[in-house]
Amino acid sequence: MGPPYFCDKQKYGGTKASVKRRGKRRSERSAYHNLKYKTMDLEILRHSCSHVMAQAVKELWPEVKLGIGPAIEDGFYYDFGKKEPFSDDDLAKIEERMQQIIAKDEPFIREELSRTEAEELFKKLSEDYKLDLIRSLPAGEKISVYRTGKDFVDLCRGPHVKSAGLIKAFKLLSVAGAYWHGIETNPMLQRIYGTCFEKQKDLDEYLKNLEEAKLRDHRKLGPQLELFDIYHEEAGAGLVFYHPKGALLRKIIEDYEKDEHLKRGYQIVITPHIMQAGLWKTSGHYDYYRENMYTFKIEDQEFVLKPMNCPGHILIYKSKTRSYKDLPLRLFELGTVYRHEKAGVMHGLLRVRGFTQDDAHIFCLPGQLAGEIKGVIDFVFDTMRAFGFNEVSIELSTRPEKSIGSDEDWQLATQALENALKEKGLAYEVNEGDGAFYGPKIDIKLKDALKRKWQCATIQCDFALPKRFDLAYVDADGKEKQPIMLHRVLLGSVERFIGALTEHYAGNFPLWLAPVQATIIPLGQDCLESGLALKKRLEEASIRVKLDDSNETLNKKIRAAEVEKSPYILIIGKREAQAGTVSVRKKAEGDLGALPQEELVAKIRQQIASRS
């Protein structure tokens, strides 16, 4: 049970519903997590609830094999080896048995065993997965089990709450498949997800948010609003198809970004999708990221479908001699990259195999580093506010176990990032060991309307790649010196950001982002000519408009426009056609009455310009 002896040692990347990254207890489902619930005591409570769930399952189905069961950010899970799948009725039975166990208020009793004793115990219990965990432990590792009730015992490091009666408010949520150790060739186990809180009101609030999150799920809204889909068997999994409205939404986002980057002194570049493998060996990605790269050979020469944009930008930097007067050099690209994600970890637009990063690399002098980092932080906040995200959380991630570069460089890079956060007066948490292999990073996670976190912006400080690629600039003294390199994204993956944006607004995009900003409904064929004239007038004012000339009733047309989430519905009857007005309905405000067409156009244009 978790956290037993796997959390820091195994990579659980192959579940069908969640992904463990870099051995830390994180989940793709953390998009549904509210930070205010994250405390160490709550983690222990959830860990204990997972233990009680395992006990209940064993009492109901003694033949079931136990896997692992840690607390995660939004609750807990446990993996079980069971031939028949768990049903919704089974979850209800498990919850009922858990309540019976909790009512007995039996203590969690810890016991330490030698390796031999532990192996004998779990061999006797026929718990094959527990034996596998024990055998993977390093020599000298303490082995402990926890006992509750008369017969239940589980391999577990702990800690737990004092007794089961302290568990007050919990709920089992869902079942998903999970490969043992996240390896697709291993047996498929059944993972039961649940959540647990100290108080019932907190659980009720969480479940309410979870239901709201289901309604906002971009995987449903995307196809429903004809924005995108990712489910074409012929193309393979994890690749996004943007429909006309989705492509238009993406264009609006990308045009905004291009304009803002040019205003801030960035230069737009484009780099190839395919480059020789040697480039990635020099950068280190080949050694540290090989399992996620698409490689192939042409005429016995190995090529890579680019998983990152940075080596391409480095080659542009190296294309000519650079002077200190040329720095800082800010290169920006909306660069599409490809990463071989396992089938079990892909999740809508949040994790795909082909995606576009709003990627920039800043090459600067040591004396410019602090200002550039703070400039990027300001750029991130301005961008988030423009798209309607006003809350963020920040993490500073330090050197991972597998990395390149000297201790001195890592210390300088980490200090530069930390100083920038302090000077900006920003609160942050330190995420030990979660930096990139070439440098530490700042992660800025936005919070949406439901207070869920979404990973978007990243700022990475890199001394290592400039050395590996022998980058240089000519200083004022005529000597060659090495620049410092910042890697940064604002939105991160454009695909993930569109997913977050869709859920934040529940598909009701603000006027400036809406693919269709106004829907015109002429009342019958007699008013069609007036409707077409209004459509042309709006299009000439750069307003995105649709005209519904179908044979449906007015109510059905209005309903169709509302389902499409059109911000404005404009109705033209004979009276409006004669008066040069239009009857206006606005999303969230209702009927605004009749407005002169000229006034309406000016009103919509002003709202688009202000991004209100």
Question: Which descriptors would you attach to this protein?
Answer:
globular; 3 domains; five-stranded antiparallel β-sheet; BirA Bifunctional Protein, domain 2; eight-stranded mixed β-sheet; 18 helices; Threonyl-tRNA Synthetase, Chain A, domain 2; Rossmann fold
Overall description:
The protein is an alpha+beta fold and 612 residues long. It has three domains: 28-216, 2-Layer Sandwich (Threonyl-tRNA Synthetase, Chain A, domain 2), CATH 3.30.980; 252-502, Bira Bifunctional Protein, Domain 2 (BirA Bifunctional Protein, domain 2), CATH 3.30.930; 518-610, Rossmann fold, CATH 3.40.50. Helix content is 35%, strand content 25%. It is built from 18 helices and 28 strands. Helix 1 packs across helix 2 (88-104), helix 3 (115-124) packs antiparallel against helix 4 and helix 6 (218-224) packs across helix 14. It is globular and about 90 Å long.
Q: What does this entry show, briefly?
A:
The chain is an alpha+beta fold and 612 residues long. It has an eight-stranded mixed β-sheet with strand order 11-15-16-23-20-19-17-18. Strands 1, 2, 3, 7 and 8 form a five-stranded antiparallel β-sheet that branches. A five-stranded mixed β-sheet has the order 25-24-26-27-28, with helices on both faces.
